[in-house]
Amino acid sequence: MDAHILRFYEITISSPSLGPEIPFLQPCLGPEISEIWSMRFILPKLLAPLDSFISAKCQSESKLISQLVYTDTVKERSWGTVDSSRRIYYRIIRKARTMVDDYHSDSDSEDEDEVIRREADATVNARLKDNTKDKYGRNIKKWEEFVQAKQRTLWLDDDEEGHIDLEHVTPEQYQEFFGWVRTKRKRDGTLIEPRKSQSYEHVSGYKSAIKDYHKQRKVKMSDESENLLSMFFAGYKRQYAQMKQNGDIAMKEGKSPLTFAGYKFLARQAVTATKDFELAIFAWVFLVLCWNLMARCVSVAGIMFLHLSWEEDSLTVVFPTHKGDQEGNDAKGKHVFANRQCPEICPILALAVFIFCLGLRREGSSPKVFSQKESSENRFSKWLRTILGAFEGALVIMGIIILSIGSHSFRKGISTFLAALPGGPSAIAIYLRAGWSLGPVTSRYIMEGGGGDQS
After folding, report:
1. 421 in any annotated domain
2. Angle subtended by helix axes 47-60 and 82-125, to nearest 10
3. Do 223 and 195 have their domain in common?
4. pLDDT tens digit string along 308-337?
């Protein structure tokens, strides 16, 4: 490094003051970087790559704090003739370009490998929805607790958390676990008296979780275990149906469908709310869209503005994926029409009021229609429970038991209402609108036509 360039700047450790033209650098930089940085006022075209280069250098090193102080006296002594300054200028440009290119080529190579690994892991994890992963995780935790309490020989402590020895689980041990799971228990694991059985869907969820756990651990379940589980669940399905026949368990499972009268009543309560208008407007448009789209709450909560479009006299809403079409093979628009006779259940009016009340959104904000910090499903469920509790008497007169009503009651209610409507849509049209699977054969040959949901 030439002596006159060395005189161009000085490095100090103790001085707290800085020249106005030279920024404060946290780590102690190498002499080449310091040289280029001290000349940065004559390198405007290289400022962006140099800034990113030095900031990365600062993050990777933790050394003594140094400061570059620019002084007029040093400046006057450093330049000399015009020719020497021109040589210094071009030499620093060449060095800067070389250093920045070398750094970015190395970092890009490392970043590319990391990006490839991260994207590959994300692709593998995308086979399951987040809520499914959470459910499987809770079920596996229950299995681990059971193994540690009753099948201790299967538990391995060869890592920090420990895990189940999947290679040595016998069919009989699987059967013992599912026999334990099928009976309802308290949080501490003790039986609920009188004894009550879990639903078939609840127990089969553990089977799905265990099979996925085998895939994650890359351990194949034995054929004997597969056969035993098939026999166990075939028998439990018949046994559960017989318990319904004998009156041992309730005929209905889950929430009850909401009647059309109940739907109108709830919509009217949202429209006529006298406080917390933001929540009331949100609940109004949310419940009206759930009903008209025959959609699950999680699907309505995920609607984005780019999923909405206008086709002639109807609003169209597209769900790219849903529970019945995880891969998005049949993503078609659902037509939604205005209701001029009953404005409290008009989806177009509700959506228009909601959008006008949103206010302006900043560029880069969430593209979702319902973009509140709190989960839209939870927010709607809280509002629904509050309204059901406040108007229990009026709902009982309409034949609605509030304990049997939930967010899923809207989806059940509209499908029941349409199926019972004289001259209403066909069962196939209802199935397609709701996104229910029609089986491997019918789903391949029976498609939704252009006017299937416009009659």
Report:
1. yes
2. 60
3. yes
4. 999 888 899 988 877 766 766 777 888 999
